[in-house]
Structure formats: structure tokens, C-alpha cells
Amino acid sequence: MAIFLNENSKVIVQGITGSEGTKHTARMLRSGTNIVGGVNARKAGQTVEIEGKQLTVFGTVKEAMKETGADVSVVFVPPKFAKDAVIEAIDAEIELAVVITEGIPVHDSAYFWAHANATGNKTRIIGPNCPGIISPGKSNAGIIPADITGPGKIGLVSKSGTLTYQMMYELRDIGFSSAVGIGGDPIIGTTHIDALQAFEDDPETEAIVMIGEIGGDAEERAADYIKANITKPVVGYVAGFTAPEGKTMGHAGAIVSGSSGTAAAKKEALEAAGVKVGKTPSETAKLMREIVKG
């Protein structure tokens, strides 16, 4: 099993003709993703050949869905135009929009997030500023390397792209049902809590790894949710134990102030919810390995 993305997913790429869109479409195709077309209003009607596959470029997401049956869109549109691209996907009611683009203004992310809510949340948004989602051996929507792990029984949800890859590699001998990189921007679509519940509901996911970062209170809220709703074992890692207080680090998404938002505070909240928390990614992987073997 997998969450949000599986072998039956039909994927389109918004921005398929751009350099990033073309490059990662090729990588997704090589990893077995069923890409059925692309979207670029200025190049509608053209055909592009990528990895030996002829893909039609459609003018709109709605048209692409009508012609191909697509249910997933991966967005590789530059920040300036990303808001309109995501709104177009929401208005077309595509089931899943994976927004890879980095550098989207927070106001724009807030706008399309609110638009999705106002129209009934028919489109699940993953991202923005994220590596995407992979269900190993089934499908890969985004920029996650497909050759670092295989299918298995661990679910992974992570704010950090690079740490997603590291954890997948560390636990490659066990494998993953799905790995979701939710992104570290202040406003994102799918949250830790959304992914935790989806893994809880997936009969073939046996344990969950959750990776967070300093800043904000997403991990503390996830800890409360785990305590109340998640029965499967969860191990955690929080990036930023050595970060100086009072500084915004990387794309943590918020300024660390007082004890709120620090790695120590997040670790404490997670451990109070029964989550084993590693001080390093390798230690976290070791904790997961012990749970699976036990």
C-alpha cells in the first residue's frame, strides 16, 4: 500500500517544457512514474519527447485531465507564476498537486491555500518548496531520488528534503510504503498530522518516521495528535539542536523564541507523546530498526 500516490496515479507536469520540468520529468519517467502529459499555456498543442515517450503539452490542467485522466500534477513553475498554476490545478479539482517550486512568496501560498479551503479541499496540496512524494516501486512525483530505497513497511513524513533522502537511505534495507516531503515554508498544504493519519490508516505501514525542524509549533501540534490518535510506533528527529537561539535558520519557517520552537522543546513534546527521538538521523534510523526488528 501507499498514501496519496500509487501505481495507478496518472501524473501531469505543470511547467514540463522548462529546464527543471524537463529534467525531472525524465527522472520521474525513469523511476516508473506514469506521466501522461504536461501543461504550458504558451506551448499548448505541442508534443515533447522525454525518455522516448511522446507527451502532449496542454493549455490547461482541466484540458489535460479531460484528455488523459490525470489525477496528480507536479508543479515546476517559476515562483512568479506558481500561484496561478496552483489555483488552476485547484479549480480543475485534480486530486493531488505537488508544488516543488521554491521561493513562492508567503502571501501567494496563503492565497492558494485559502482558495483550496474555500472550494472544499478537493485538491490535496503537498508543498510548496518540497521534494514531493514517492511510493517506492509504484510512483514518484517530485525530485526525490528513486534509487536510494525500495518498497517496504515504513512511512516517512519530513519537513526537510535532504533529510528525507538520508533517512530513506539509512533504512533502505527495510524500505518505505511512502515518503512525503511536506516542505519547510511557513504555509504548506499537507502537514505532519495529515501524513501521520494517512499512515495510521494504511494497513501496510507498520511504523512511522517523522522529521521536523526548529521554528514554529508544527511538531508540538503533531505530538499532541500522535498522543490522541496514532497507535503505530513513531520515531522522530528534529533538525537544529545546535542552532543558536533567536536566529531564523534555513527554511525552518519561523524565528525561534523562548523555548517555543527550539529543538529541545520539540523533542520534549514528542517524547511526552511516546515518540522516540534521535539526536542524529543515524540514531533515529537505529531507533526505527529496533522497533521493526522487535
Overview of this structure, please?
This protein is 34% helix and 23% strand. The chain has helices at 19-30, 61-68, 79-91, 106-118, 161-170, 192-201, 218-229, 263-272, 281-293, and strands at 11-14, 35-39, 47-50, 53-58, 72-75, 96-99, 124-126, 132-135, 139-142, 151-158, 176-181, 207-213, 234-239, 276-278. Residues 251-258 have low confidence and may be disordered. The longest helix has 13 residues, at 79-91. It is α/β, with parallel strands linked by helices and 294 residues long. Strand 3 (47-50) and strand 4 form a beta hairpin. It folds into 2 domains: 11-126, NAD(P)-binding Rossmann-like Domain (Rossmann fold), CATH 3.40.50.720; 148-293, Succinyl-CoA synthetase domains (Rossmann fold). Helix 5 crosses helix 9, helix 6 (192-201) runs parallel beside helix 7 and helix 7 runs parallel beside helix 8 (263-272). The strands form 2 sheets. Strands 3-4-2-1-5-6-7 form a 7-stranded mixed sheet. It has a 7-stranded mixed sheet with strand order 9-8-11-10-12-13-14, with helices on both faces. It contains 9 helices and 14 strands.
